[in-house]
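Thread: quick sanity check before group meeting

JM: Hey all, I'm pulling together slides for Thursday and realized we never actually wrote out the predicted structure for the chain we discussed last week. Dropping the sequence here so it's in one place. If anyone has concerns about the input, flag it before I start.
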Amino acid sequence: MNEYVLQPIGYVRNEVSIPDEVPYNGAASILELLPEYAAAANGLEPGYIWVVTWLHQSERVPARDHPGGARGSFSSRTPTRLNPIALTAARLLKVEGLALYVDALDVCNGTPLLDVKPYVREFDCVFAPADPAWRRASLPEQRLARIVRTIERFCGPLTPALAVAARMALAVDRDLDVSVNSADLRWECWCPAEIAGGIQAIAGTHLGHPRFQLGPDEGFVRASSPTAGTVCYALRPSWSAGSLQAPEATLFARSSEDGAAR
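JM (edit): ok, ran it. Output follows.
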């Protein structure tokens, strides 16, 4: 078998010591380039990039134990892989000399950096991809973190309206006990356009898709599943001051199916 030699072009710098301490959505990091690779960053501007790293603290393990049986590394995002290589889409915030600042990476301090490549929307973006049901996070706070990350990736920085969309999605996840991007879940958004945009990103659908219906702003969102039932939430008058930390009751209320608040 042929062997291939990889040379680090730099190292990741962050406050994470070991893989088990990596935050659920990654940690703010600096890609510290080696001086001889400074010219490789010429022309690089803030935006999204692909970051390729070598998981130096991980083992080469092709499968891992899983409640449903052994799952191969190809069907999971475990850091124990056939070759311990990580590929992460990250938002490049700024470039200062040899330092590339990114919003979040799911690797540890000192991880060798192998390559950086621009994220190109027309080639790299797949809207509404299949998302296996097993990827639903086990804890509500993890589900909210994933919802927020999805919204920010598709809609930009979190605003009060997008925060309300995230909280509504989490409420649907809780009340119907179903993943919010499930192919069985249908969303009807009779609400402000920005909230509807956040819901659309979460659902992973395009305008005109049968799972996403946009109507006039009547102040409610309805979600339904043939197996889990239907829930409807009416916006409170104070929703515009919404945040991820605000009490749910100040943002919206469970309502009847016609949108009338209970």
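AS: nice. The chain has a mean pLDDT of 88. The helical segments are 121-124, 140-155, 160-176, 193-203.
JM: adding both to the slides.
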